[in-house]
Amino acid sequence: MVRRSGRRPGNQDTRQDILAAAREVFAEKGFDKASIRAIATAAEVDPALVHHYFGTKEKLFLESMEVPVNPAELVPKALAGPREEAGERLTRLVLSVWDSPAGAAAVAMLRSAMSNDWTARLLREFIVTQVLRRAITELDMPRDEAPMRASLLATQIGGLAVVRYVLKVEPVASADPEILVRAIAPTVQRYLTGEIT
Question: Which CATH fold topology does 12-64 show?
Fold first, then answer.
């Protein structure tokens, strides 16, 4: 009889239990106040097992949200370059992600968030902690202006997502992305770096 060495294969049910518990804890407490220990307790597992399956709290959060893209990679790339062109690059990034196959999951989450408080809390946590904070950091916004700028940015991008992908209002729904970039980017740029008062 040959003995196997190393870790035994993980239990898929345990992994799913952790993800379900993470969704609940993140929705209830938010990303910042949720802890690996609280998630492990809710899943009735040891915190080390949570780390084994997911590594960091951020990776667990992204996986619990079933996010098909990683904002930690995309947002810095979109905002790298001349500051006065950040609105254009960010608008183009949003449209490229939402228009891609990965956008289907985002549309489903957005639809659900519009009618379900629990999903809305999860989506809000994702947008604030994974997208808006990164934009604030990358653009080195003044601390006293950052929350308002980030919130205004969310109104523009969120409105675009709802109109184009959920409500499908024409001609925006079928417009060429570059037309939308030219129309929307100046407002996004103003929210990022221009006068807002």
Answer: Arc Repressor Mutant, subunit A (1.10.10)
What is the per-residue pLDDT across 116-166, written as a single tens digit (0 to 9) for each?
888 888 888 888 888 888 888 888 888 899 999 999 999 999 999 999 999
12, pLDDT greater than 70? no
- Is it true that 12-64 and 71-193 share their CATH fold? no
- CA-closest candidate to residue 67, choices 94, 112, 102: 102
pTM beyond 0.85, yes or no = no
Both tokens of 187, joined, read 């407002």
Domain definitions of the chain by residue range: 12-64, 71-193
